[in-house]
């Protein structure tokens, strides 16, 4: 059974905007890359997988469960890294991690501490004053902290410096070696202009 299966997904926002008759499958242990330029419908597709949006037509299942009807059940074993990070300004990074741990029933924080060290995150500061890169690292930690079997990662290296991008890539390779996790990676596809092509 596919861990993620989309059949004929359609969400029409009018004027040719939306997603139309998308079909795809992600198998257990697979890293699935979902590529496209801005406006191609990548984030809209993710919102349907997460159960944030109801499709006009078609079905989306995650581990055999309807993504819209069973979203609460699905998300207990799913990690989500959004493309745009929105965090509560009134908390520190440490408080936010503790809040997410409580929501997920995490008692043993050793894996979370490993991730904090791995990504060189200092969570003590106010979220309001954190840089984009630090917020991105915090979001990575929160997405992986409960050891989910399915990861939905929207442009996961966006906002990370080149060193952290490499750390993230190596981390995914290490995690993938277990072959129990499945990844749905959304990647922004840049179309090179002739000027940019000259310098390749």
Description of the molecule:
The protein is α/β, with parallel strands linked by helices. The chain contains seven helices and eight strands. The longest helix has 15 residues, at 162-176. Residues 190-200 have low confidence and may be disordered.
Structural features:
single chain; 200 residues; alpha/beta; Rossmann fold; 4-stranded antiparallel sheet; 4-stranded parallel sheet; 7 helices; 8 strands; globular; disordered C terminus
Helix segment tally: 7
Order of helices and strands: EEEHEEHEHHHEHEH
Mean pLDDT: 89
- The count of domains is 1
Strand order of the largest sheet: 2-1-4-5
- Summing up helix and strand content along with how strands pair, one would put the structural category as alpha/beta
- Percentage of residues assigned to helices: 25-40%
How far from one another are the termini?
42 Å
CATH homologous superfamily descriptor: P-loop containing nucleotide triphosphate hydrolases
The CATH architecture classification is: 3-Layer(aba) Sandwich
Number of strands: 8
Question: What's the gist of this structure?
Answer:
Helix content is 33%, strand content 26%. It has helices at residues 42-49, 71-75, 93-104, 110-118, 132-144, 162-176, 194-197, and strands at 4-14, 17-26, 31-36, 57-62, 65-66, 78-81, 150-154, 182-188.
């Amino acid at each position: 059974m596919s861990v993620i299966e989309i059949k004929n997904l359609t969400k029409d926002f009018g004027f040719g905007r939306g997603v139309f008759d998308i079909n795809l499958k992600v198998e257990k242990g697979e890293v699935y890359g979902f590529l496209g330029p801005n406006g191609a419908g990548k984030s809209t597709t993710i919102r349907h997988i997460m159960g944030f949006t109801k499709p006009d037509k078609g079905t989306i299942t995650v581990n055999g469960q309807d993504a819209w009807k069973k979203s609460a059940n699905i998300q207990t074993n799913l990690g989500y890294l959004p493309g745009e990070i929105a965090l509560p300004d009134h908390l520190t990074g440490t408080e936010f991690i503790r809040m997410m741990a409580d929501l997920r029933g995490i008692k043993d924080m050793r894996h979370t501490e490993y991730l904090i060290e791995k990504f060189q995150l200092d969570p003590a500061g106010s979220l309001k004053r954190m840089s984009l890169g630090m917020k991105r690292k915090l979001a990575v930690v929160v997405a992986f902290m409960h050891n989910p079997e399915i990861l939905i990662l929207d442009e996961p290296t966006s906002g990370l410096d080149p060193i952290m991008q490499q750390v993230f890539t190596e981390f995914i390779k290490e995690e993938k070696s277990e072959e129990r996790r499945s990844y749905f990676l959304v990647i922004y596809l840049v179309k090179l202009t002739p000027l940019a092509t000259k310098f390749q």
